[in-house]
């Protein structure tokens, strides 16, 4: 009997994934990430395997309806497809690469951005048990997609067919989606950012400080004071959440922003280096090549030879 129930559940999930894929396909004409009438919802489409795309990923839920993706956080590698969903709970510099897609069977992804305040409200109103203040977990995780989560996601995307219903129903469906994640196997990893005073909550504040002031020298003592931790404790908890040290986090933010400036052609390599906080263009060039595989000028030529500027800019938004 149990085997029959498992088969029925698997069949049900496949049908829902197909329905979600059809919806995303309908609302994502053309390559890249497509904003929708629901401000936090994006439908993403890609018709080919991509090079790694580097972004600072804001808190979001991503569900792939078709195709596969690989995400790199520091040295950690995460692969996921239609059977899984990915959650990012704090701002993280990552790279993402579509590893399974074609023009006949394109990569199709649902992305729902959210704010930590929404998690706080849900924990309070649903009386969900929060994590202990000392806990710190990784700020990115992959978990198994459930039928109940897909039901809520499909209802949200279907609202794009009836825009007059969005204002009344989108907040309700969004709350259900976040609730399903919090109740899921790894919900504790999302809860941690909402507990004021927890180690992860304090790390989140440090992340925001580094991100807003990435071009300024990093003063670990000041960051530790902001977090109300010792420097060694901050280093340990920061690495547990982000998989990197504060200095490594700042470096990735700097280099990704420099690459964006170069791609937009608003600065040459030396100007981009100074704008993001490097005193030495040669030091910048070495670190840029270490992260992206080529020095700045050669990297830009490779990117522009691969795709048009418009396509490339779109791909940077499509993680």
Automatic annotation (TrEMBL):
Residues 204-302 form the HTH araC/xylS-type domain. The keyword Transcription applies. Pfam families: AraC_N (PF06719), HTH_18 (PF12833). SMART domains: HTH_ARAC. InterPro entries: Homeodomain-like_sf, HTH_AraC, Tscrpt_reg_HTH_AraC_N. Keywords: Transcription, Transcription regulation. Gene3D superfamilies: Homeodomain-like. Transmembrane segments: none annotated. This is AraC family transcriptional regulator N-terminal domain-containing protein. It comes from Paenibacillus enshidis.
